[in-house]
Amino acid sequence: MLSAGPISLHYGKHLALDGVSIGVDANETVVVLGANGAGKSSLLKALAGLARPAPSAQLHLDGKDLLGLPAHKFLELGIALVPEGRGIFGDLTVAENLELGAYTRHARPHEQRQRALVLDLFPRLAERQAQIARTMSGGEQQMLAIGRALMSCPRLLMLDEPSLGLAPIVTGELFQALGRIRQTGIALLVVEQNVKASLAIADRGYLMDAGRIVGTGTAEALRQDPAVQRAFLGAVA
Ligand SMILES: Nc1ncnc2c1ncn2[C@@H]1O[C@H](COP(=O)(O)OP(=O)(O)OP(=O)(O)O)[C@@H](O)[C@H]1O
Protein backbone atom coordinates (compact mmCIF):
# COMPACT_ATOMS: atom_id res chain seq x y z
CA MET A 1 0.00 0.00 0.00
CA LEU A 2 2.56 2.62 1.16
CA SER A 3 6.04 2.34 -0.24
CA ALA A 4 8.72 4.90 0.52
CA GLY A 5 12.38 5.20 -0.14
CA PRO A 6 15.15 6.08 -0.12
CA ILE A 7 14.08 9.07 1.97
CA SER A 8 16.72 11.58 3.03
CA LEU A 9 15.84 14.64 5.07
CA HIS A 10 18.01 17.51 6.19
CA TYR A 11 17.41 20.11 8.88
CA GLY A 12 19.93 22.68 7.70
CA LYS A 13 23.19 20.75 7.68
CA HIS A 14 21.91 17.99 9.95
CA LEU A 15 20.99 14.79 8.11
CA ALA A 16 18.02 13.42 10.09
CA LEU A 17 17.07 10.69 7.57
CA ASP A 18 19.74 9.01 5.48
CA GLY A 19 18.14 6.96 2.71
CA VAL A 20 15.33 5.30 4.67
CA SER A 21 13.17 2.80 2.78
CA ILE A 22 10.00 1.52 4.39
CA GLY A 23 6.74 -0.10 3.35
CA VAL A 24 3.37 -0.82 4.92
CA ASP A 25 0.85 -3.21 3.35
CA ALA A 26 -2.91 -2.95 3.65
CA ASN A 27 -4.10 -4.35 7.02
CA GLU A 28 -0.56 -4.46 8.38
CA THR A 29 0.62 -3.11 11.73
CA VAL A 30 4.23 -1.99 11.58
CA VAL A 31 6.31 -0.59 14.42
CA VAL A 32 9.39 1.64 14.18
CA LEU A 33 11.84 1.30 17.07
CA GLY A 34 14.89 3.39 17.83
CA ALA A 35 16.61 5.50 20.45
CA ASN A 36 15.92 9.21 20.96
CA GLY A 37 17.05 11.18 17.96
CA ALA A 38 17.15 8.16 15.63
CA GLY A 39 14.84 9.96 13.20
CA LYS A 40 11.52 8.22 13.89
CA SER A 41 9.42 11.39 14.18
CA SER A 42 11.11 12.86 11.11
CA LEU A 43 10.20 9.73 9.16
CA LEU A 44 6.52 9.95 10.13
CA LYS A 45 6.50 13.66 9.24
CA ALA A 46 7.94 12.88 5.81
CA LEU A 47 5.36 10.12 5.28
CA ALA A 48 2.55 12.52 6.28
CA GLY A 49 3.72 15.24 3.91
CA LEU A 50 4.76 17.51 6.79
CA ALA A 51 8.49 17.43 6.01
CA ARG A 52 9.90 17.55 2.53
CA PRO A 53 12.48 14.85 1.75
CA ALA A 54 15.28 15.25 -0.80
CA PRO A 55 13.89 14.98 -4.35
CA SER A 56 15.59 11.62 -5.00
CA ALA A 57 13.00 10.01 -2.69
CA GLN A 58 10.08 7.92 -3.88
CA LEU A 59 6.79 7.97 -2.03
CA HIS A 60 3.78 6.04 -3.31
CA LEU A 61 0.39 5.09 -1.95
CA ASP A 62 -1.08 2.30 -4.08
CA GLY A 63 1.10 3.43 -6.94
CA LYS A 64 0.09 7.10 -6.67
CA ASP A 65 3.06 9.43 -6.41
CA LEU A 66 2.77 11.54 -3.25
CA LEU A 67 6.06 13.39 -3.41
CA GLY A 68 5.59 17.15 -3.40
CA LEU A 69 1.85 17.04 -2.63
CA PRO A 70 0.67 19.34 0.18
CA ALA A 71 0.00 17.72 3.59
CA HIS A 72 -3.79 18.04 3.30
CA LYS A 73 -3.65 15.87 0.16
CA PHE A 74 -1.93 13.11 2.12
CA LEU A 75 -4.83 13.26 4.59
CA GLU A 76 -7.35 13.31 1.76
CA LEU A 77 -5.73 10.20 0.27
CA GLY A 78 -5.98 8.34 3.57
CA ILE A 79 -2.74 8.91 5.47
CA ALA A 80 -3.35 10.34 8.96
CA LEU A 81 -0.77 11.20 11.62
CA VAL A 82 -1.32 11.44 15.37
CA PRO A 83 1.74 13.54 16.21
CA GLU A 84 3.82 13.40 19.36
CA GLY A 85 2.16 15.84 21.76
CA ARG A 86 -1.22 14.97 20.19
CA GLY A 87 -2.04 18.29 18.49
CA ILE A 88 -5.66 18.45 19.61
CA PHE A 89 -7.49 21.78 19.88
CA GLY A 90 -7.34 22.34 23.65
CA ASP A 91 -9.94 25.11 23.81
CA LEU A 92 -12.53 23.18 21.83
CA THR A 93 -14.82 20.42 23.10
CA VAL A 94 -14.38 16.73 22.39
CA ALA A 95 -17.28 16.83 19.92
CA GLU A 96 -15.80 19.86 18.11
CA ASN A 97 -12.37 18.21 17.86
CA LEU A 98 -13.96 15.13 16.29
CA GLU A 99 -16.00 17.23 13.90
CA LEU A 100 -12.86 19.03 12.71
CA GLY A 101 -11.21 15.66 12.07
CA ALA A 102 -13.78 15.01 9.34
CA TYR A 103 -13.12 18.22 7.43
CA THR A 104 -11.73 16.65 4.26
CA ARG A 105 -13.97 16.19 1.24
CA HIS A 106 -13.65 12.41 1.27
CA ALA A 107 -14.34 12.14 5.04
CA ARG A 108 -17.33 14.47 5.35
CA PRO A 109 -19.95 12.06 3.92
CA HIS A 110 -18.85 9.38 6.44
CA GLU A 111 -18.86 11.62 9.52
CA GLN A 112 -21.75 9.88 11.34
CA ARG A 113 -20.35 6.41 10.73
CA GLN A 114 -16.84 7.37 11.83
CA ARG A 115 -18.10 9.15 14.95
CA ALA A 116 -20.02 6.00 15.92
CA LEU A 117 -16.82 3.96 15.42
CA VAL A 118 -14.74 6.37 17.53
CA LEU A 119 -17.27 6.56 20.37
CA ASP A 120 -17.57 2.77 20.38
CA LEU A 121 -13.77 2.42 20.53
CA PHE A 122 -13.42 5.05 23.24
CA PRO A 123 -16.55 5.10 25.46
CA ARG A 124 -14.84 7.72 27.63
CA LEU A 125 -15.07 10.18 24.75
CA ALA A 126 -18.76 9.38 24.38
CA GLU A 127 -19.34 10.41 28.00
CA ARG A 128 -17.34 13.60 27.61
CA GLN A 129 -18.41 15.09 24.31
CA ALA A 130 -19.09 18.53 25.82
CA GLN A 131 -15.85 18.65 27.82
CA ILE A 132 -13.13 21.14 26.87
CA ALA A 133 -10.27 19.02 25.51
CA ARG A 134 -7.46 20.54 27.58
CA THR A 135 -9.26 19.69 30.83
CA MET A 136 -9.09 15.97 30.08
CA SER A 137 -6.44 13.58 31.38
CA GLY A 138 -3.41 12.74 29.24
CA GLY A 139 -4.85 9.35 28.33
CA GLU A 140 -8.20 10.85 27.35
CA GLN A 141 -6.45 13.48 25.23
CA GLN A 142 -4.51 10.75 23.44
CA MET A 143 -7.78 8.88 22.77
CA LEU A 144 -9.24 12.11 21.39
CA ALA A 145 -6.20 12.65 19.15
CA ILE A 146 -6.59 9.12 17.76
CA GLY A 147 -10.34 9.60 17.46
CA ARG A 148 -9.88 12.81 15.55
CA ALA A 149 -7.46 11.12 13.16
CA LEU A 150 -9.98 8.28 12.64
CA MET A 151 -12.61 10.85 11.64
CA SER A 152 -10.56 11.48 8.49
CA CYS A 153 -11.29 7.87 7.34
CA PRO A 154 -7.61 6.89 7.15
CA ARG A 155 -6.37 3.79 5.38
CA LEU A 156 -3.03 4.24 7.12
CA LEU A 157 -2.96 5.63 10.66
CA MET A 158 0.47 6.71 11.91
CA LEU A 159 1.07 7.29 15.61
CA ASP A 160 4.11 9.00 17.13
CA GLU A 161 4.78 7.77 20.68
CA PRO A 162 1.10 7.37 21.63
CA SER A 163 1.90 6.02 25.13
CA LEU A 164 4.31 8.83 26.04
CA GLY A 165 3.66 10.03 29.60
CA LEU A 166 0.75 7.67 30.22
CA ALA A 167 0.34 5.41 33.25
CA PRO A 168 0.75 1.66 32.54
CA ILE A 169 -2.95 0.94 32.95
CA VAL A 170 -3.87 3.69 30.48
CA THR A 171 -1.19 2.45 28.07
CA GLY A 172 -2.81 -0.99 28.29
CA GLU A 173 -6.21 0.46 27.34
CA LEU A 174 -4.62 2.41 24.51
CA PHE A 175 -2.96 -0.63 22.99
CA GLN A 176 -6.21 -2.59 23.31
CA ALA A 177 -7.90 0.15 21.31
CA LEU A 178 -5.11 0.04 18.70
CA GLY A 179 -5.66 -3.72 18.43
CA ARG A 180 -9.33 -3.08 17.72
CA ILE A 181 -8.55 -0.36 15.17
CA ARG A 182 -6.27 -2.85 13.46
CA GLN A 183 -9.17 -5.32 13.23
CA THR A 184 -11.23 -2.74 11.32
CA GLY A 185 -8.74 -3.09 8.46
CA ILE A 186 -6.82 0.17 8.96
CA ALA A 187 -3.06 -0.21 8.54
CA LEU A 188 -1.01 1.14 11.46
CA LEU A 189 2.51 2.55 11.54
CA VAL A 190 3.55 3.12 15.15
CA VAL A 191 6.63 4.77 16.64
CA GLU A 192 6.91 3.70 20.25
CA GLN A 193 9.24 3.66 23.22
CA ASN A 194 7.04 0.99 24.74
CA VAL A 195 8.65 -1.76 22.69
CA LYS A 196 6.98 -4.66 24.46
CA ALA A 197 3.44 -3.34 24.00
CA SER A 198 4.00 -2.25 20.41
CA LEU A 199 5.61 -5.53 19.33
CA ALA A 200 2.64 -7.34 20.87
CA ILE A 201 0.25 -5.76 18.33
CA ALA A 202 2.68 -5.49 15.38
CA ASP A 203 3.17 -7.82 12.41
CA ARG A 204 6.58 -6.41 11.53
CA GLY A 205 9.01 -3.76 12.57
CA TYR A 206 11.99 -1.64 11.66
CA LEU A 207 14.89 -0.64 13.85
CA MET A 208 16.35 2.84 13.28
CA ASP A 209 19.63 4.36 14.36
CA ALA A 210 21.15 7.71 13.41
CA GLY A 211 18.74 8.30 10.53
CA ARG A 212 19.04 4.82 9.00
CA ILE A 213 17.16 1.53 9.06
CA VAL A 214 19.55 -0.88 10.77
CA GLY A 215 17.26 -3.86 11.16
CA THR A 216 13.91 -5.23 10.09
CA GLY A 217 11.92 -8.37 10.76
CA THR A 218 8.72 -9.88 12.05
CA ALA A 219 7.60 -8.80 15.50
CA GLU A 220 8.66 -12.19 16.83
CA ALA A 221 12.13 -11.96 15.24
CA LEU A 222 12.64 -8.47 16.68
CA ARG A 223 11.53 -9.63 20.11
CA GLN A 224 14.20 -12.33 19.98
CA ASP A 225 16.89 -10.03 18.52
CA PRO A 226 19.68 -9.58 21.12
CA ALA A 227 20.24 -5.95 20.03
CA VAL A 228 16.56 -5.14 20.57
CA GLN A 229 16.52 -7.01 23.86
CA ARG A 230 19.60 -5.17 25.13
CA ALA A 231 18.51 -1.72 23.98
CA PHE A 232 14.77 -1.82 24.63
CA LEU A 233 13.61 -4.84 26.59
CA GLY A 234 15.83 -4.55 29.63
CA ALA A 235 17.89 -7.69 28.96
CA VAL A 236 21.33 -7.76 30.54
CA ALA A 237 24.15 -8.14 28.01
N1 LIG B 1 13.10 20.97 13.36
C1 LIG B 1 14.32 20.48 13.56
N2 LIG B 1 15.42 21.25 13.36
C2 LIG B 1 16.67 20.76 13.52
N3 LIG B 1 16.94 19.49 13.87
C3 LIG B 1 15.89 18.67 14.09
C4 LIG B 1 14.52 19.12 13.95
N4 LIG B 1 13.71 18.08 14.23
C5 LIG B 1 14.51 17.04 14.54
N5 LIG B 1 15.81 17.38 14.46
C6 LIG B 1 16.98 16.50 14.71
O1 LIG B 1 16.88 15.40 13.82
C7 LIG B 1 17.22 14.18 14.48
C8 LIG B 1 16.07 13.21 14.43
O2 LIG B 1 15.01 13.72 15.21
P1 LIG B 1 13.62 12.96 15.39
O3 LIG B 1 12.73 13.80 16.25
O4 LIG B 1 13.12 12.54 14.07
O5 LIG B 1 14.09 11.66 16.19
P2 LIG B 1 13.24 10.62 17.02
O6 LIG B 1 13.80 9.28 16.71
O7 LIG B 1 11.80 10.81 16.76
O8 LIG B 1 13.60 11.02 18.49
P3 LIG B 1 12.66 11.15 19.79
O9 LIG B 1 12.31 9.77 20.17
O10 LIG B 1 13.57 11.81 20.79
O11 LIG B 1 11.48 12.02 19.40
C9 LIG B 1 17.62 14.59 15.89
O12 LIG B 1 19.03 14.70 15.94
C10 LIG B 1 16.95 15.93 16.10
O13 LIG B 1 17.69 16.73 17.01
From TrEMBL:
Pfam families: ABC_tran
Keyword presence, Nucleotide-binding: yes
Keywords: Amino-acid transport, ATP-binding, Nucleotide-binding, Transport
GO terms classed as biological process: L-amino acid transport
Record SUPFAM superfamilies: P-loop containing nucleoside triphosphate hydrolases
Domain ABC transporter: 2-235
Record flagged with keyword Nucleotidyltransferase: no
Source domain of life: Bacteria
Listed GO MF terms: ATP binding; ATP hydrolysis activity; branched-chain amino acid transmembrane transporter activity
InterPro entries: AAA+_ATPase, ABC_transporter-like_ATP-bd, ABC_transporter-like_CS, BCAA_Transport_ATP-bd_LivF, P-loop_NTPase
Family that this chain belongs to: Belongs to the ABC transporter superfamily.
The protein, known as: ABC transporter ATP-binding protein
Organism: Devosia limi DSM 17137
